[in-house]
Amino acid sequence: MAGLQQPHAVLPAGLPGGKPGSGHPGSGHSLDGGPVVRRGRAATFIRRYKLAPYLLLTPALIGIALVLLWPLVQVVIFSFQNYSLMQITGAAPTQWVGLANFTSTFKDAEFWLSLRNTLLLAVVVVPATLIVGTIVGVVLNRLGKKMAVFVSTAALMAWATPPISAAVLFYWLVNPDGGVVDWALSKMPHWLVGSTNWAQYNWTTTGAFQAYVVIAVLVVWQSFPFIAVTVLAGLKTIPAELLEAARVDGASSWRVFRKITYPLLKPIFLVLLLLSVIWDFNVFAQSYIVTGFPGNQNEYNLSTYLYDKAFASLPPSYGLGGAIALIFALILLVITIGYVRTSVRQGALT
Amino acid sequence: MSAESADLSALRPAARAKADRVSAPGASRARAQRRARWAGLNGFGVIIALVTLFPLFWMVSTAFKPSHEIFSLTPSLLPSHPTLGNFREVVSGQVSGIGSVWLFFRNSLTVTLATVLVASLVSLLASVAVARFRFRLRASFLVMLLIVQMIPAQALIIALFLDFKRLNLLENLFGLVIVYAAQALPVSIWMLRNFVATIPRELEEAAAIDGATSFRIFWRILFPLVAPGLVATSIFAFITAYNEFIVALTFLGQAHSDYTLPIYVTYFFGRGGAQWGPIMAASTMYTIPVIIFFLFVRRRLVGGLTAGAVKG
User: Fold this and answer.
1) A151 CA to chain B: closest CA distance, Å?
2) Residue A292 lies in a domain
């Protein structure tokens, strides 16, 4: 939702150390469970019909329904209509067009290109983020206090950087005119960085591959801290004696991780994996900036492709945009269902 | 979380004690090995920190460089003639052509604080409902929250744009606050729910027996105890609103004077002209406050994140 990767409801899913279901002893026993004392008539009415929870929920439900659920319904409706500027002004009637928006989307080479870009980014960035984040989390757990504070502060700063700031900053780092990355690469020996002429190498317009290398590094840089912090929190639940005993017995760090840490933290990794996939599918701000939207159409991902069809094309086609949004939402829904099932199985609803 | 996490070095004394018990002949070799491992670990830590910090360092460094140094063929780490010129240009508003950075700062701050206020209040009420009452559809509501928090803004933006256009809420900050507050709700309710659940019911029951009304119980007992949780959710709402891009980009259109910081930076960036000094100065002014904020609230941030982990 927000560009920055954030404390979504990750950990309500529970760590292995926690006891799922023990949070709420008793049920049906609550604020309204006390003896009857003198109350106003409205209060009596609320109590008699057990309305209190519904009243408390009403503002939240209205907000979520109007801003999140109703627009979703509308997008589904648009995707089967020829909705555009003419229909908004009333110059032409709104018509149902069946699956036309979907078929023209599937016929559009740009759609497949943007789907490919989206998938490739996720395939590279998800494992990279998880691996880097986990390594940093494990290292943080073993560093001395001062050093750990230093490293985690650095990570926190990358995490805190707003996506737009980070994207503009990385665009500048790889800029052909004065960017420090090209300068550094051009100074490195050829055996290390290949024989490309790196001076004034253009990362953002040469091709989709180059642009996505930049986006991938940028997204990993911004999202590994969250993984690291979460893994660290998980590691704290593992008794230190367990790890120490293994180490004293001569087990290597890798073996300790594979035989003790990983099995115990598996539920966390599962949740982090699903969340990372969802986040990396949603990369918009970074792609918008780095690919110079709406300049290079072969560098679109699903988000920028959708945005182009709905807002940057002339005339804007809300029907087409709706169809793409629906496809996009369905892909995410599959992943989300996996996430919800995992969370529920881990006792998130108790 | 915060208390346990404070002692990151808890492992080390234990390790030392155990290793010291190892027999004498192998002791010096073991010590050398331990020292090598310690050096390796710390070296690795330093590398991680430096690589992570470099981009931010470069942003600030560029912001203080005069333009001939920015485009110099051999860039230097630190500005050799540091200048405030870039910041001056950003503050005067000449270089972006749409106004002083302070205007956009004020817009961002207004939207963010209003979002925090609305989202906290609404999610507090809802979290009490799900943490304290058993009612029909409670589980459905929770699952619904989990699902809607995953709906990307990109998928909704078309409908939101058209709806808010009809309501005349585009191109003003109020419309943004409504969207941001609603977007922050699902996660905020989840987080707060865990905090409310940790407060002993007995407190409320005792108050109820003493004849306190539900409102009084809520206001005098629950609210003060859940305050730390509110801080955590406020942080979340703050970040959501301060960083949000796609909705602001779509809603604000050409209403320059209502731009929030990310839209201002994007506009500035999109104008081209290679104004890297002023652009980095603007980015710095956008980024530094939120970094300071993160560092300031880091305990709560991590605590809020792992609130679910320590339940039970």
Assistant:
1) 5
2) yes
What is the pLDDT of chain A when averaged over all its residues?
A: 84
Domain count for chain A: 1
- For residues B133 and B183, membership in a common domain is answered with yes
CA distances from B159 to A70, A254, A316, A318, A321 (A): 9, 50, 13, 9, 10
Give the angle subtended at the CA of B100 by the CAs of B97 and B104, to the nearest 5°. 105
Is A140 strand, coil or helix? Answer: helix
- For chain A, say whether B26 makes contact (Cβ under 8 Å): no
Asked if the Cβ–Cβ distance from A166 to B55 is below 8 Å, we say yes
Q: Report the residue from B9, B15, B280 with minimal CB separation from A172.
A: B280
- Expressed in angstroms, the distance from the first to the final Cα of chain A is 25
pTM attached to this predicted model: 0.85
- Nearest Cβ partner of A318 from B162, B187, B218? B162
Asked, for residue A55, whether it belongs to a domain, the answer is: no
Chain B hits for A160, CB-CB cut-off 8 Å, are: 287, 290-291, 293-295
pLDDT of residue A343: 80
Is B74 inside a domain boundary? no
Q: List B residues 161-180 in contact with A (Cβ-Cβ < 8 A).
A: 161-163, 178-179
Q: Give pLDDT tens digits for B68-126.
A: 999 888 888 999 999 999 999 999 988 888 999 999 999 999 999 999 999 999 999 99
Q: Which of B149, B217, B244 sits opposite A8 (nearest CB)?
A: B149
Residue A95, amino acid? Q
CB pair distance less than 8 Å for A164 and B245: yes
User: What range defines the domain where residue B48 resides?
Assistant: 11-63
pLDDT score at A160: 92
Give yes or no: residues B119 and B43 share one domain.
Answer: no
Statement: residue A42 has pLDDT above 90: no
pLDDT for res A39 = 56
Overall domain count for chain B:
2
How sure is the predictor about B229, in pLDDT bands with cuts at 50, 70 and 90?
Answer: confident
Q: Do B48 and A139 touch (CB under 8 A)?
A: yes
B186/A64 CB distance under 8 A: yes
* Distance of alpha carbon B196 from alpha carbon B201, whole angstroms: 10
Integer Cα distance of B185 and A59 in angstroms:
10
User: Looking at the structure, do residues B39 and B157 belong to the same domain, yes or no?
Assistant: no
Task: Kindly state whether residue A37 falls inside one of the protein's structural domains.
Answer: no
Per-residue pLDDT, B271? 86
Residue of B nearest to A225 (CA): B52
Query: How many angstroms separate the CA of residue B139 from the nearest CA in chain A?
Result: 7
Q: Has residue B95 been placed in a domain? A: no
Average pLDDT, chain B: 86
Cβ contact A59:B125 at 8 Å: yes
Cα-Cα-Cα-Cα dihedral sign, residues B297, A220, A170, B99: negative
We report the CATH number of the domain holding residue A218 as: 1.10.3720.10
Angle between helices A41-48 and A52-64 (to 10 degrees): 80
Instruction: Among A14-23, A64-73, A249-258, name the most confident range.
Output: A64-73
Q: Do B54 and B127 sit in the same domain of this protein?
A: no
Same domain, B132 and B232: yes
**What pLDDT does residue A20 have?**
36
| Residue B52 near chain A (CB below 8 Å) | yes
CATH of the domain at B301: 1.10.3720.10
Q: Which of residues 94-123 of B touch A (CB under 8 A)?
A: 121-123
Buried b (16+ CB within 10 A) or exposed e, B146-184: bbbbbbbbbbbbbbbbbbbeeeebbbebebbbbbbbbbb
Structural domain span for residue A227: 103-345
Binning pLDDT at 50, 70 and 90, where does residue A133 land? Answer: very high
Q: What is the mean pLDDT of residues A90-103?
A: 89
CB contacts of A281 in chain B (<8 Å) are: 152
